[in-house]
Amino acid sequence: MTTGDDVTLDLDDIQSGALRERPSPYVGRYLLLRLDDVAQGRELVRRLHALLEDQRSASPSATRAWLTVAFTYEGLKALGVPPSSLDSFPREFREGMAARAQELGDVGESGPERWEPPLGSPDVHVAVSVLAPDPPALEAVAERARSRYADLASVAVVWRQDCYQLPSGRTSFGFKDGIGNPDIEGSGLVPRNSRERPIKAGEFILGYPDETGSLAPMPIPDVLGRNGTYLVFRKLHTNVAAYRRYLRDRARDRQEERLLAAKMVGRWPSGAPLALAPDRDEPSLGADPHRNNDFAYGDDPGGFKCPAGAHSRRANPRDSLESELTTDTRLHRMVRRGTSYGPQLPDDVLDDDGADRGIIFVFAGAHLKRQFEFVKTQWLNDGIFIGAPAERDPLVGAHQQPTDFTMARRPIRRRLRDVPPFVVTRGGEYCFAPGLRALRWLGELDT
Predict the structure, then answer these.
(1) What is the rounded distance in angstroms from the CA atom of residue 212 to the CA atom of residue 105?
(2) Among 183, 211, 239, 439, which residue's CB has the most CB atoms within a 10 Å radius?
(3) Which residues form the DyP dimeric alpha+beta barrel domain (predicted)?
(4) 118 beta partners
């Protein structure tokens, strides 16, 4: 596939999970594996590589499931990757998410000492995700994957999480998700935001020019790094009942309750953005993929339609910061792959039922530090860039203590006080999803 700058993407070598849109709705499964023997670990890689090759060569009509394979730094060490190659990975990947928790704001209830084991530990080596449009298709491909390691005694499944997307596309908070992903040059997907040029492929896939015109630092040898991408995996528990009670207690009626929720998120439950539908939900807009991401914030600098501190505006300010000479929002874009886990809390229930529910977030990009870590620390966990240093993202911002949330309105703004944490980090990993040729290289290592 050739991009607008005549850069050809080797789509046959890039794992499909990095660029391909997921089916909707879908069911999925995440598995984490530990490798206790180098030889059997490499045998596993060879088998998974063959499975991915089969998936790639299958006709589109026969492909009813999507498989992605990635490795932590500890996993690459367990495979016997040479030290020179290991040292060529960026520092944040080598350290791992748990070691960077303090900087990311994963403290207190979200601290690694409280994470779900073995997340954040040296025992996580391989991550395998399987997605399919229905349970039979999921079980079929999951069984094919299981057969690749079932007879390998030194390969252990140490963690499993089933997940899903509802037909409505909504998460446990009740809002449609997965709308604001960037258009990527050369991906083969139809652009959905006419107000923004597609982002350079090198922002997401290693080996291609990024928005600076340069190549992102790439692991060596070239065969290992090219066509790979970094994945940020996070399990986030959502306190849905507390979220609903907070809104109910501060609204005069149900209509205002829905408006306050939309102001926090930046969208209505249907997915309709406040930038296009500031006063009421428009389900037809939210359901239209050619319209629900086709907007900007340049005509709303004061945040009267969409608050500057709303979750979706913080995560992707679009053209809000064009006057800031030191900030180029195109350098901080990511591909987001969020999915739900656990039972949905029934509508209007305000009491916690004790169930574990939430969101599995996966972010893909070529620059862990200036994409995920920058957005998390500078835009979600801080309010300096919007002129409110003491405020955090009202949904996912790191705050052990309650924060405030300000909404511009005339004649006087409204400020919600003491917004409590609604999301708790249950664990996470930094992973590397290599290209198919790199998988073959890993499986054939003889060091």
Answers:
(1) 28
(2) 439
(3) 58-135
(4) none
Q: E strand or H helix at 273, and its extent?
A: none
Tokens for 259?
């408006």
Nearest by Cα to 357 from 369, 346, 375, 343: 343
Question: And the tokens for 242?
Answer: 């507390």
**pTM of the full structure:** 0.94
Distance CA 203, CA 214 (A): 10
Contact (CB, 8 A) for 28 and 138: yes
Quote the Cα angle for 402-405-408, to 5°. Answer: 165
Measured torsion, CA atoms of residues 137, 141, 143, 146, in degrees rounded to the nearest 10: -150
End-to-end CA distance of the chain: 35
pLDDT tens digit sequence for 409-428: 999 999 999 999 999 999 99
| Angle formed by the axes of helices 254-265 and 240-250, nearest 10° | 120
